[in-house]
Write a structure and sequence with these properties.
With 579 residues, this protein is α/β, with parallel strands linked by helices. The chain has three domains: 3-211, Rossmann fold (3-Layer(aba) Sandwich); 241-487, Rossmann fold (3-Layer(aba) Sandwich); 519-563. The chain has helices at residues 45-50, 52-63, 77-87, 182-191, 247-252, 283-300, 313-323, 364-367, 386-394, 428-438, 454-461, 473-487, 519-533, 539-545, 550-556, 560-563, and strands at residues 3-5, 12-17, 34-38, 70-75, 92-101, 117-124, 135-138, 163-165, 169-175, 199-204, 241-244, 259-265, 301-311, 328-336, 349-356, 406-407, 444-447, 465-470. Helix 2 crosses helix 3 (77-87), helix 3 crosses helix 7 (313-323) and helix 6 (283-300) packs across helix 7. The protein is globular. It binds S-adenosylmethionine. S-adenosylmethionine is lined by residues 246-247, 265, 267, 274, 277, 422, 424-426, 449, 451-452, 454, 469-472, 475.
Length: 579
Amino acid sequence: MAHWSEKSLRLRCVPINVTSIAELGIVTRAEPATYLFWLPFGRTQLDAQSSKAKFATLAEACSTLNERSTVCFLTTPEDAALLLSSISNVLKFQHWVAVKTTPDAYDKNEGQLPRRHAALLVFTGYSGVLGHTKTRIKYTYCPGCGRTTKDYGGKAHMYHEYGTSISDVWRDLEWDPTLGVNIVVDRLRDLFGLEPYRELTLVDLHECVELLPARTALPCEGPLRVRKRGMGNHPKRLRSKLIHGDCLETLRSMPSNSIDFCFADLPYNLKKKYCGWKDDLEIVEYFQWCDEWLAELLRVLKPGGTLAVLNMPVWSARHFEYLSSGMTFRSWIVWEALSIPVRNIMPAHYAILCFSKGAPSPLPGLTNVNEESYLTPQREGFCIRPGCYLKRSLLNIQDRGEITDVWHDVHRLKHNTRRVNHPCQLPPLLMRRLFSLFTAYGDMILDCFDGAGTSTLVAAQMGRRYIGIERSKRYHNLARKRHSQLREGHDPFAPGNEIPKSKNNQVRRMPSQKYPVTKKDLQLDVKRIYQELGRLPTRDDVARHSHHPISYFKEYFANWGEVCAAARTTGMSDASPLD
Ligand SMILES: C[S@@+](CC[C@H](N)C(=O)[O-])C[C@H]1O[C@@H](n2cnc3c(N)ncnc32)[C@H](O)[C@@H]1O
């Protein structure tokens, strides 16, 4: 077992076979329980669209379950996206977990990104935080240096000896849908093994006649249509430019069928502090706005070209619903952006939803000899320590693997020296990989939320043309300045000396200072006090028992949770237990 659940009362698994939707009535139960609905695999975008009425029936069945129940669905991302809207009407959505699948789980599609994940949706009948056991995933050790694959730097004292907290990307297992669901059931039995639950009911729908893959399903009518606007097709090649303006207004003035790759890293409506933009619209208003510019992106996109939208999985499900009514689904890329999950089922990934206009053309990055190496990701299992990289390249150790739709090796910009004054910049490597995959040299890329210019800068570096639209004058000017630096031969992504004022998370930034005692020493002192008292110490306890002045704890740490971080866990060693 690659996981360990603290104090788990492992659930008993009770399988129920449902061969027709009409039999769903047998699932109804009065006591709280955990359910896993397992849908047939191999279904397509069209199967998912034509099953909407069946999903509504599934939702009805779920509405009769005890309100303390936990209800999971294991299926393809296409089904999961459309199920989510039906089931959310009756249950509270909690998590979208990306579960790694075996290489042959999906049919191979020449010239398209290989698929390697399924979706596990988790809902509850109650509205609070999801109840589950504290579950950890066992550390893995790099074959290059023998140390843990995640680099904990000087913070090993703050991590647990067994493994990392579970996140919403399960890459430590590989699900083969042809072999049943035991591998997933096994984890759920421990994850949800807490009072008052006793059973995991496995509702096996994989032979349910109404849900079997149809192969011949017909496209459904939907709200998304290619719009006609005055400018028609554009005879001339568009030139690269940055535009200060509203995306919708600007898009409306652009010619149809003129862009090879549209990219949108939109505001997530999470109350981020953007300059000149209110990031907290009513959700209906937010999606109406999204639908408007998505329809314009479809219009300006060339036939066969790709539209990629980056968002949280739950919002991506709604984009999927809209886009699939008028475009062809290409890929659901799981971008695992968080390297160290620190709390229970930590949301660690974004979805990059890719659709094509009409039939998808073969991906340039997979069909031509590519000029860049961004399409050979670091192989899972290897660490990112610079010394180990060097050793691997000197010893010619093969640490690069094949690209799939699960991206685990592109890390967010964590270090302030790599960031400029924008609250949520993307890492340049993410754009390099997307452009290498979806575009060829000279292609036109459109980013309608250009921000600090990450995508347009990368496009320029890679010999692509670009149009970047940004509504905030400040960010637009910032992007322009960085493009000038690039034209003058400087690297706009090189580390800088200034600490940016914009923050990408809510945690208070501590002033830079020289510490007479290390933060680690302070945290270990708190751990000593915890062991003496037999409980987590309060500020008064620390003031009374610490070897250090209480003022240090106030000045060094953003909050009390950080002060007690080492006391709450065992501490770990970087080295493999075999060493
Ligand atoms: C998530 S950020 C994009 C960050 C960008 N990918 C980067 O790496 O710098 C979204 C951006 O969209 C901009 N924005 C919000 N509403 C807009 C609109 N209606 N038209 C154009 N830009 C908009 C915001 O100012 C913000 O800079």
